[in-house]
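F.,

This is the one I mentioned.
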């Protein structure tokens, strides 16, 4: 009888340990993934927060695609170049807009600081943004 209770206790302990979720932060190896963007539009003095995706281009490991920048939707994207922790882009078009400039720094694999200018058909929007993730 004691052995049976012991086995049940061991089994219960193992199940309890396996069901616990790790509180350790996720280990990122590059900048790909989902990011929270905290954006400040210095032209209109507005702040917004939204999610965007970053993924690496298969054809060039220094180029990354960012979707939903400036809340344009998941089908809109820009391509940026990552070199020594610095993000840059040459002028690119989104539907009805032009991203005129972008520069930024990958602070670490959980934080990116960016500044960019987007012409929305009426004015230049000068944006400061902070991307973060857990």
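My design for it:
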């Amino acid at each position: 009888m004691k052995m049976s209770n012991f086995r049940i206790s061991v089994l219960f302990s193992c199940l309890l340990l396996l069901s616990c979720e790790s509180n350790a932060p996720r280990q990122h190896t590059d900048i790909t993934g989902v990011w929270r963007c905290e954006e400040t539009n210095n032209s209109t003095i507005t702040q917004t927060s939204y999610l965007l995706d970053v993924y690496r281009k298969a054809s060039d490991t220094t180029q990354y695609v960012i979707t939903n920048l400036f809340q344009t939707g998941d089908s809109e994207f820009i391509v940026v170049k990552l070199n020594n922790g610095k993000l840059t882009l040459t002028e690119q078009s989104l539907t009805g807009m032009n991203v005129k400039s972008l520069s930024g720094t990958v602070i670490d694999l959980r934080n990116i600081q960016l500044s960019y200018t987007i012409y929305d058909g009426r004015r230049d929007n000068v944006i400061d943004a902070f991307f973060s993730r857990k």
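DSSP finds one helix and nine strands in the chain.

Talk soon.
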